[in-house]
Structure formats: structure tokens, C-alpha cells
Amino acid sequence: MNVTSDRTLTARIERWPIAGAFTISRGAKTEAVVVVAELRQGPHAGRGECVPYARYGETPEAARDALMAMAGAVRDGLDRTTLQQVMPPGAARNALDCALWDLAAKAAGRPAWRLAGLAPPRPLTTAYTISLGSPEAMASAAATASSRPLLKVKLGGDGDATRIASVRAAAPRAELIADANESWSDANLAGNLEACRQAGVTLIEQPLPANRDAALAAIPHPIAICADESVHDRASLAALRGRYDAVNIKLDKTGGLTEALAMAGEAERLGFGLMVGCMVGTSLAMAPALLVAQRARVVDLDGPLLLARDRDHGLRYDTSTVHPPDPALWG
């Protein structure tokens, strides 16, 4: 590491109200609680946002504290390569890794995509999420969003056949993907898969719990099945072969853009399709993920669309088309 004594790190917890409520099989929430890491060096500042997730044993307070524990290493010149070795994958590392990318871009006067050796990012079509609820409520939400080209339907186990049929009837022209968030069981797996096939669903995320997904290797896949809770970084990929057809790369799981880019390449080498997803956060969390999403078959970066308001200089969304970030936001 090169000594950089004038570089400082701060971290803060922010709360962003959700428009209504966001409901999945594990519960509902009315706000997005995020942690922002900010690096300052001379006249330049770089930021990264993470969304700690209780499913993985994370809390906003613990993520903030983990970040602040890195203040000395940051002052001493911590770089992205060393960061991968000294912090574990997860939300806190994501915030710091993305802040390092942003600071490097600002200091160099060059966009992050160029620093990463990537092609210029283009606008992408993102999924729009239909929260879990009664078939009637989900149909109503789907009807309101029926002009969007791609809907992501949250499912919850029993009753999902009726839910997905109701959504399909309300949005007959939209492409549907489904996310069960580990809520299915061996008993209803085949029936729910068939109901999704009949509804024309093109991809299903994480139907079974991550520690009980071996059954996926023993049944036909009439629809592509995508790992989410079962996949985190490159180290988790090999065990998924034969069970999943695709993997959902989220920067809060990989621990940042650095690992996400490497993971995307390794997943493709192993034959997995790519999805790039997000937790519910602001545009600051989505911006670096857009670089990985350029190579994905499915993009699910609708977090800001679910908020009552986004941060300043947020990503531009034209309905479901999300545009690359302005440097004032990130990168």
C-alpha cells in the first residue's frame, strides 16, 4: 500500500422511505436503511452505498462500525486489491469498495467504466417489482405496471399458483420473472414450477432455501432457475452447478464492484446465465451495479423506483429504462 496520509473515511446510516410497503416472503418494510461510506482526499470525494441484510446476519450499525474500523487502513493507503483480503464479502465491503472506485474516478478525471477497462455503459431495461400480497392485490399492482416490459413477481409458497396466474392475467404482455425468496418446499416445488410455466414465467429466483436446494439437481427445469441466497461470490459458484441455470450477482453479497466483475466472468466460464440484482436502496447503490449489468440477461435494479424519493443526482429512469449515472452521483 502507498501511504496516503490525507485520505479520510466516514460512514453514516441513512433512512429512505419506501413508497407504500415492500413485501417478500420474509416480511415487509417501509423504509430502506442504507450505510454510506465516503472517502475524501484533497479536493476529491468518493462514495459507496450498501444495504445490510438481516438474512445474512448484517445490521446497519455493524456495517457502519466495520467500515470505521478500516479508517486507519484507508489513511495508510488501502487499495481495492488489499481490501478483498482484509474484509469479508458483504455489505460493508461493498460500500468501501465502491467508494474507492468513485474516488479513483474523480481523482483521475476518468469514468469508472474506463478505469475498469469496460465499454461505455448503455441504458438498460430493468425489472419492476410486484410485492407479495393477495392475488387480488398483486393483480392490481401488476395492472398498474402492465406497460412495463419486465415485471419481477415476489412469491411466498402456498397459494403461489393463484398469485402468478392473477399477475399474468393483469399484465398479459409483460415478461415475468418470479422470486420465491426461499419460500418453496419439496412438496410444492413441482406444482409451483408448473404454474409458473403455464403463466409464461421466464426465470425463477431461489425457489428453495439455500441450505436445502439439492433437490434442484434431481428435477427437470422447465424454466431457468436462478440462485440468489445460495450464491455470494466466486467461491460459492462451483457448488451450484447442476442445481441452477443462472446466478444473481448483487454487490451487497459480493462485497463490491471489484469482486462482482470478477464473479461475472467466472460465472460465464462455468456456464451460468447472469442476472444483476439489488437490495432496496438509492441510486448510489445501483450506479456501480450498472457496470456489471451490461453483460447480464436479466437486470433488476429498480430500488430507487420503490422509494418515496431518491437522492440528488439520482439515476434517470424512463419508465423501465435506466440510464448510466452522472459523475455527480458516482463514477
Properties at a glance:
eight-stranded parallel sheet; 2 domains; three-stranded antiparallel sheet; alpha/beta; 24% strand; 331 residues; Enolase-like, domain 1; 31% helix; TIM Barrel
Written account of the structure:
With 331 residues, this protein is an alpha/beta fold. It folds into two domains: 7-115, Enolase-like, N-terminal domain (Enolase-like, domain 1, 2-Layer Sandwich); 124-322, Enolase-like C-terminal domain (TIM Barrel). It is 31% helix and 24% strand. The chain has eleven helices and 14 strands. It has helices spanning 60-68, 71-75, 80-86, 91-108, 112-115, 135-144, 160-170, 189-198, 251-254, 257-269, 283-293; strands at residues 7-24, 27-41, 44-50, 124-125, 128-130, 150-154, 175-179, 201-205, 224-227, 246-249, 273-276, 298-299, 317-318, 321-322. The protein has an eight-stranded parallel beta sheet with strand order 5-6-7-8-9-10-11-12. Strands 1-2-3 form a three-stranded antiparallel beta sheet. The chain has a three-stranded antiparallel beta sheet with strand order 4-14-13, with no helix packed on it. Helix 1 (60-68) packs across helix 4, helix 6 runs parallel beside helix 7 and helix 7 runs parallel beside helix 8 (189-198).
Structural class: alpha/beta
The strand order across the widest sheet is: 5-6-7-8-9-10-11-12
CATH superfamily of the largest domain: Enolase-like C-terminal domain
Just name the CATH architecture of the largest domain: Alpha-Beta Barrel
Low-confidence stretches: none
Task: Output the number of helix runs.
Answer: 11
The span between the termini is 22 Å
DSSP strand content: 15-25%
The description of the largest β-sheet is:
8 strands, parallel
- What is the residue-mean pLDDT, rounded to a whole number? 96
> What is the number of beta strands?
14
Order of helices and strands: EEEHHHHHEEHEHEHEEEHHEHEEE
Radius of gyration, in Å, reads 19 Å
Query: Class of the largest domain, according to the CATH hierarchy?
Result: Alpha Beta
Number of domains: 2
In which range does the helix fraction lie?
25-40%
Shape summary: globular
